[in-house]
Structures are given as structure tokens and as C-alpha cells.
Amino acid sequence: MKWALVLAGIGDFARPAEKLSLTQNAALTATGAIWTRWCLIITPQNYLLAAVNFFLGCVGVAQLTRIAMYNASQKKLPPQAEKEAEAVKDAVKA
Fold first, then answer.
1. Residues contacting 10, CB < 8 A, separation 6+
2. How far is CA 13 from the centre of its chain?
3. How many whole angstroms from its chain centre is CA 67?
């Protein structure tokens, strides 16, 4: 079932970065990292579960990077561009 989370995260690559949830992707990244480590230190080691958690963490890191890059690009916009971006967002919502 955890592979479904990985596939859902991969599916989110098609979504615009401004619609991604920072907290959700941070939780996926943390879950992936923590459980990958845990699967490798327990006895017996569970490599299949470690693999799914590793990919879950990778997808989360990729999405967090997209969110960070989007947020950084929004801070660099001049005031006129911010107004145009808001107008585009409003048009998309409508």
C-alpha cells in the first residue's frame, strides 16, 4: 500500500508547484527517511520496505524542491509581475 503513496507523489509532478502542500510533502520526506533507516537497523533487515520508504523520501524531496523553487521565484518578482501572476491565478480559478 505504501507504493500507492509513491505513485501519488509521482502523479503530483503534473500539478503546479503553488498547489502542492508543503506540510504534506515534508511529512512524506520525513516518513521516508525515518522508516528507511529503521528498516535497515532492525533484525531481520527488510530491504523491500526500505526501498519503498527510500522512494517515498525521494519523491518528497523532489516535491519540496519544486515548492522551494516556486517560492523563491515569487519573491523575485517585481510588483507589476505579482499583479499579473495574481490575475492569472484568478483566471485559472474561474
1. 59
2. 8
3. 7
Quick: pLDDT tens for 38-53.
999 999 999 999 999 9
Tens digits of residue pLDDT in 61-84: 999 999 999 988 888 767 676 677
With a CB cutoff of 8 Å and minimum separation 6, the contacts of 2 are 49, 52, 53, 56
What secondary structure does DSSP assign to the chain, as a single string? -HHHHHHHHHHGGGS-GGGS-HHHHHHHHHHHHHHHHHHHHSSS--HHHHHHHHHHHHHHHHHHHHHHHHHHHHHT--HHHHHHHHHHHHHHH-
Contacts of 85 (CB under 8 A, 6+ apart): 74, 77
DSSP H helices in 12-46: 22-41
Q: List the Cα angle 53/54/55 in 5-degree steps.
A: 90
pTM for the structure as a whole: 0.76
